[in-house]
Design brief:
The chain has 270 residues and is an alpha/beta fold. The protein has helices at residues 77-92, 98-102, 109-116, 121-134, 145-154, 167-176, 200-209, 223-232, 246-251, 262-269; strands at residues 4-7, 10-11, 19-20, 24-27, 64-67, 74-75, 140-141, 158-162, 185-187, 216-220, 235-239, 256-258. The strands form 4 sheets. Strands 9-8-5-10-11-12 form a 6-stranded parallel β-sheet, sandwiched between helices. A two-stranded antiparallel sheet has the order 1-4. The chain is globular.
Length: 270
């Protein structure tokens, strides 16, 4: 019998009552995805001068852990780089430089593409996505991640992914790693008006999970993860097992440093 995973996705209403979109229906047997309608485009990032939790999240109940996706849950650096290089090579007609490949790393793909090939950004995205999906065998969770997620669920934590990936690519990645079913919510590029390091994606996760700021942790491998969580008033765990920006992450003085996924349990249980 086909089993269904229901992922409710919300449109971004600034700290008000969330308005639900039609839910995602992800068939575990067939892998069918039915996308929600798009929401407002991203505005330029302007972090609040005095970051902290919004009052409506102070009285929520339950414990939660939020995870970045690439470099935290999934060992995808080489595939992401290869996919972007392939797309740029086709569009530019030459080998991309290292600077072009890693410009705006961690930002939504459409913004990275526009920064390198503004007139052909849509084609870069299309070629990237095709390459990415054709090489799904390279998408693997980091060792210890499935065990960590199961342990957190056993302890009663609510779990969400907070990523700058598009909804389609995020769900495709989580399905390929066979960990989608372990999450209560997946917050993607379409679900918040501004991407990390702005706090809106974290606020959206808190709202969807009905999780209190003081009982929520954000686990991420990049500075933008730490900055977004801190701007929202959420405690932070630096995921050093997958980071490519160790010094920059540590310079932000996260609340907890995890060398292995199992270290996250020590942080959130403590």
């Amino acid at each position: 019998m086909t089993r269904l995973i229901m992922l409710q996705v919300y449109t971004p209403l600034r700290y008000g009552t969330p308005k639900p979109c039609p839910p995602y229906v992800c068939s575990r047997a067939r892998g069918a995805l039915q996308p929600c309608p798009p929401v407002a485009s991203h505005a330029p990032i302007e972090l609040p001068a005095r970051p902290g939790p919004h009052p409506r999240f102070l009285q929520a109940s339950g414990r939660a852990v939020l995870f970045d996706l690439d470099g935290t849950l999934v060992d995808s650096f080489h595939l992401l780089t290869a996919a972007f290089a392939h797309a740029l090579r086709q569009v530019l007609g030459r080998e991309p430089t290292e600077q072009e490949l890693h410009r705006n790393w961690g930002a939504p793909l459409r913004l990275r593409a526009a920064a390198v090939a503004p007139e052909q950004a849509a084609e870069v995205v299309r070629l990237y996505e095709r390459y990415y999906e054709q090489h799904q065998e390279a998408i693997k969770p980091f060792p210890g991640i499935p065990e960590l997620l199961r342990a957190l669920r056993h302890d009663g934590f609510r779990l969400a992914v907070v990523t700058s990936k598009s909804r389609h690519r995020a769900l495709f990645t989580l399905q390929a790693c066979r960990i989608l079913h372990l999450f209560d919510r997946v917050i993607c590029e379409e679900d918040a008006p501004r991407p990390k390091p702005a706090p809106e994606p974290v606020y959206q996760a808190l709202r969807c999970l009905r999780a209190p700021v003081r009982k929520t942790w954000m686990v991420g491998d990049a500075p933008i993860d730490i900055l977004a969580a801190r701007a929202a008033g959420v405690r932070t765990v630096a995921a050093l097992w997958g980071t490519r920006e160790r010094d920059a992450v540590l310079a932000l003085r996260p609340d907890y440093i995890a060398s292995l996924p199992s270290d996250v349990l020590k942080a959130v249980r403590g």
